[in-house]
Amino acid sequence: MIFYVFLLSFYVFRPVVLQLNYEKREENVRINQCPTNQTILPARVINLQKDNWRVMLVTWKHDNEVIYSFNGELNLHVNKYEQFGLQNCQNEKIQAGDVSLYFSKTPPDGEYTCETTELSTEGSKKVHMQFVMEWLCISSPGIITIKALLLVVSICEIIFFWKYLHKTSGRFISGYCIQIIGIILLAVGLCLFQNGNLWNPLQKAGLVVAVCPPLLCFLISDVLFICGSKIKNTRARIGCFCCCGLQFLFWLIATVGAIMCIQDCPPSITSQIVLIVGILFYTIAESGDICCCSYYCWLNHKEGCSNQMVNATPNSNNAVECEPLSTKS
């Protein structure tokens, strides 16, 4: 009987451990890809019993890894995210319940957990930070699209290169050199223009380098190849130069789009559309150029076969056969 009375009295007069509660604020922090001077992960305790930072412990974790801790008894701050500009919490703010984290640079995304202890009273809060990709060209699908279009352009230029590789005149050699420069610039630009969370100056430079100089180099090399080949067929010649004119027009459009994209953060939808449309139709015009040149080669081959048939001796028993169309014809 005495034992049960003891248990009942212990239950009634047991020490009450309060739960620290946090102010109900946004628990999902959304950050776009633009660099910012300050990022705040909010956390504020609203029911502290003691106005004394010396009896408090504060711990912040990122994906279960401790990145910041404060020990009031020792007055000790441990900061593991200084590379992201994480600032130590001020003792006066901790005493007032403000245990928010302040970053001067954009920290990595993921789940952040704040754990606060005042004497024997504890509480925790989770804050999820995520990047919001607000435009196509910096997101994964957008980067893949732009890279794919530019690589198709590069493949078209390589086809041009091999089609005229046997030519050794000055215009063709100049075209080869300009084309190689364009491919190198394109490779450098694509390496800089990588997928990332921030629209930083390195990615901006990569976008401009991958779009503006290479497309112009490819256009100049195409004109040199066409002029050097001395196309006599009127239709083929007009078709080739019309395609070059369209390439120049869409190069201007792509260049304007790239410049518009690097001026604002996040870039407007209009600038994104201008950029992608310019590259897309430049690629189509480039393909048309190759088709016109191939048509000219086919006509040359056909006319050559006709001339062989006309010049053949009528009484000759030897049949006249036209050689297959060669890529070097």
Task: Describe this protein's structure.
Strand 8 and strand 9 form a beta hairpin. The longest helix has 43 residues, at 269-311. This protein has 329 residues and is of the alpha+beta class. The strands form two sheets. A six-stranded mixed sheet has the order 1-9-8-3-4-5, with no helix packed on it. Strands 2-7-6 form a three-stranded antiparallel sheet, with no helix packed on it. The protein has seven helices and nine strands, in the order αββββββαβββααααα. The radius of gyration is 35 Å and the shape is rod-shaped. The protein has helices at 2-12, 91-95, 140-163, 170-192, 201-229, 234-263, 269-311, and strands at 28-32, 39-41, 56-62, 65-71, 76-79, 86-87, 101-103, 110-118, 121-132.
Structural key phrases:
single chain, 329 residues, alpha+beta, six-stranded mixed beta sheet, 7 helices, 50% helix, rod-shaped, disordered C terminus
